[in-house]
Amino acid sequence: MFLHELTANGIREKVKNREVSCVEVVKELFRRIKQKEALIEAYIFLDEEGALSKASEIDDKLESGKEIGLLAGIPIAIKDNISTKNIYTTCASKILENYIPPYNAFVVKKLLQEDAIIIGKTNLDEFAMGSSTENSAFHITRNPWDTESVPGGSSGGSAAAVSADMAFMALGSDTGGSVRQPASFCGNVGFKPTYGRVSRYGLIAFASSLDQIGTLTKDVFDAAMLLQVISGHDALDSTCSALDVPNYLSDINCRDNVVRIGIPREFFREGLDSEIRNALMNALEIYKKNGAVVIDLSLPHCEYAIATYCIIATAEACSNLARYDGVRYGYRSRLDDDNIVDMYSRTRAEAFGDEVKRRILLGNYVLSAGYYEAYYLKASKVRNLIKNDFDEAFTKVDCIISPTCPTPAFKIGEKILDPLEMYLSDVYTNIANLVGIPGISIPCGFTTAGLPIGMQILGKHFEEKKILQIAKLFEQETDFHLQKPKLD
Amino acid sequence: MDIDPREIDNIAKLSRIKLDDAEKVKFKNQLVHILEYVEKLNELNINNVKPIFYTSPLKNVFREDTLKPSFHRSNILNISPSHVNGFFKVPKIIE
Amino acid sequence: MEYNIVIGLETHAELNTDTKLFCGCSTSFGSEPNTQTCPICLGLPGVLPVINRKAFDHTLKTALALNCEINDFVNFDRKNYYYPDLPKNYQISQNHFNVGNNGSVDIIVKGEKKRIGINNVHLEEDAGKLVHPEASDAGHSLIDFNRAGVPLVEIVTNPDLRSIDDVQGYMHTLRNILQYINVSDCKMQEGSLRFEASISLCRKGAKVFGNRVEIKNLNSMKAVMKVLAYEISRQKELLDKGAQIVMETRLWDEVDGVSRRMRTKEEAHDYRYFPEPDLVPILVDKKSIDRIRETIPELSAMRRQRFTSEYLISDYEAGILTESKPLADYFEECVKLTIVSPKELSNWIINDVLRVLNEKKSHIQDFTISPKMLVDLIEMKSEIGGSIAKEVFSEMSNTGKDASSIVREKNLTPLSNAEELNFIISKIIEDNPKAIEDYGKGKKSALSFLVGQTMKITKGKANPKILIDIFREKLENNL
């Protein structure tokens, strides 16, 4: 087995036991990246020099017997909408093409404290708006399982990098499924924590009430490890919880919590790919064999989730993206700018892509005078109905299992011309963002064409630990997560 | 449903995005398509439902009135498109 | 034609916190441009706001002092509009769930009490400052974000103001309250108190009010007065001609003394308010209301009334003494320290202390003479005489020394040496036969004249009480 094929925890063990140095790990990983990146194009920016220097710093620490962090020596990729001090952070947008943040996101600080090695910034749909990573202003990213297919999105670069063994783990962000859907398409484990579990400080906002930083890893244990590091209170994020972070790693193999599994019947209706349905049914059998009870559920308002999401996400987005105006940072139109209003409109016309423009326009439409009540207020009420569905469901079940996506990875170019069709691919995922609950996507099979299938497990607010245990059981009973794409 | 061309102009203005005529037609059609889908929400009776704007149960989050060092001005100005004498510089403002 | 006038006023006061509303940058005035900024107040990608507790408490205090109903659920909204001094291109403000609503302020206009309704009191962040280079062909503007994010309390009246006098009375009272409760220093020259006015006129007897005109950019109470006077005459002139008033927003041009159209109703901003998702709501319970209420001192109107009844000074004097809280505190401190009558203390403070402060353009808080020092001086007065006392006072205000050391150093001890005095007095009696004659005829004022002459010669060093006794004795004997 090559070094790059190991899990993050595998690398951690090897580094800790001094079987391999951090510098060797980084060098080996960059060898791999140089071989495969031209094909996959998962990254926007690679920082080999910075990674090597951090690696030798940690090697020195190990050498001198100093205490090392939980992620010591693990090379990690970061979605390019998470601010990294002195390292380009572009959101895959021309408007931030040359933007270098003067500060680190909370999660980046935590990673560095725990001795992780940042190797680069991964591709995404511009400002995380999209489900295929085709909306990047720079280049598309290919799915390692089928390079004609999309890796999903918006954290497509992070998912593809982990899947192609070009990173041991990665951070993503999830506003409507942007961690879980690419994880499903690329055969990774993708975890979106409870809203408020991880600080959003430094995550470049798309939709503030929905955004949450999440993890993309090769298995459930790595997800627990990374989540352990990035969770916790941050005084700079008013929406970040002060609840204690449990130890996600201890008892991860405990099976006591795998009891009542809810299956929302609305999620198994038309539109669901039959191979995916079968994979899910098989997965449920595995749970049943291990003592779980499967309970039929109804989440009657979930069919309104996409419509609700369209309104809330775009309304928040149009306001969040108003700051990109060419005044304080980022791109400014080079055309003759004799007055500020034209400068704004040209700057934004030239530097935003179509999907971002579409959402800004839609957001401003639903918030504009006379429409607030018909759209934003109404959506906020339906959001409450959806939340009530879940509150109700969780009185009967410990978790809710569904497919992560209705289809496997689709072809590049297949949906890009139909925005609504693209939005609908988030049908099973964005409810978790509307309600704020945690969810994981884990590999649960393959289509006959060899594309990964993802299973989503949703839990109650702040019950990350339970979800990890439920996911871990499945992983122990199956080997889907061990499959690797053939990239040679 | 449909969106009036003047309304598209207004939305583009509110968005501070310059659109040419072809783009106006394209975005208008896409917005109409999405808004027609969104009309699904009208199926629901929501008169007595309270809206939620926050999914977090948090309340009363404050910081104390304690000074923190500001950023070094050059760090801030160096990433700006245009600055002079410590100020950010922008085209003339015409109301 | 005669018109009724309806005016509403929005007041923005910078709260006197050390740090900005959502970050730890300083709020101090007058620093180099953009040196009091950070990623948060510059709205860099990925930053988030966290509310300054003191700013919130100050807003709550203001709402309570203005007799508002306090909302138990308070949240913030985003007010979306593009302006280069607004870093995020939205302002975090409050639109729906304000801190307080339905308050009132009592003002006195021409001796009559009038109640002005307060629609709401809310908290929001300030914008930066634009600098327009003087050359008219400069083609660019400059921005300083030091002020961006400074907490502002906004106080919105109902349209209850009916005249310029009402407006003046209201602004004056409001500023006084804000200073009394110590939430804002209200320094007009530093822009910490700013106004927006709306005004409409209608012919007397008409039922429907005319179109409303809003005027922005009023950076002083003087500007408010001027622009309203201007607007009233502008609108009257138009209405007299039978013209319509256009519903619009106008800007006050301080230099030319005119208001100019900024935008019409059709061009009015669509602020697209929605709840700020980066902040969580604030629940205000009775306990926190009580805690803040306890910090509100007796306000000037009450204090003025109490001063007249408790200290037997005139309403006019009480008005001056309660104009600012520190001055009223100074007076009461003096009262506590002495048996000298409050009336006399009031005279000293109004005539002497305020004169010196005026001359020095200084404030009572920075005054060199403490209440104890002033009281000591006044108590010495019977001994050293009024004119010496005044001289000592002026020396005290210059040097900060206490009265007794000045009297000692300058050898201002009163002349009590009887022999010397007798000599001087005999000379005065000799030189003023007319006065002696008058006294003999029962003209008591002649005695004052003689005492005055003696004081002149002794340069005020004689003790007038003793002088009177000596004169009386001598003159009685002469008769």
Notes on the protein architecture:
The complex is a heterotrimer of chains A (488), B (95) and C (479). Chain A has 488 residues and is an alpha/beta fold. Chain A has helices at 8-16, 22-40, 48-63, 106-113, 156-163, 180-186, 220-230, 274-289, 305-320, 340-351, 354-367, 373-393, 419-424, 430-435, 464-477, and strands spanning 43-46, 75-79, 117-122, 169-174, 189-192, 212-217, 260-264, 293-297, 399-403, 439-446, 452-458. Chain A starts with 7 loop residues before the first helix and ends in an 11-residue tail after the last helix. Chain B is of the alpha+beta class and 95 residues long. Chain B has helices at residues 5-15, 21-38, 73-77; strands at 62-63, 83-84, 87-91. In chain B, 29% of the residues are buried. Chain C starts with a strand and ends with a helix. Chain C is elongated and about 95 Å long. Chains A and B meet through helix 9, helix 10, helix 11, helix 12 and helix 13 of A and helix 1, helix 2 and strand 3 of B.
In spatial order, strands of the major sheet of chain A run 1-3-2-4-6-5-10-11-9-7-8
Q: Separation of termini of chain A?
A: 15 Å
The total domain count of chain C is 3
CATH superfamily of chain A: Amidase signature (AS) domain
| Main sheet attributes: strand count, strand direction, barrel closure of chain C | 9 strands, mixed
Shape of chain C: elongated
Helix and strand content put the structural class of chain A at alpha/beta
Number of helices of chain A: 15
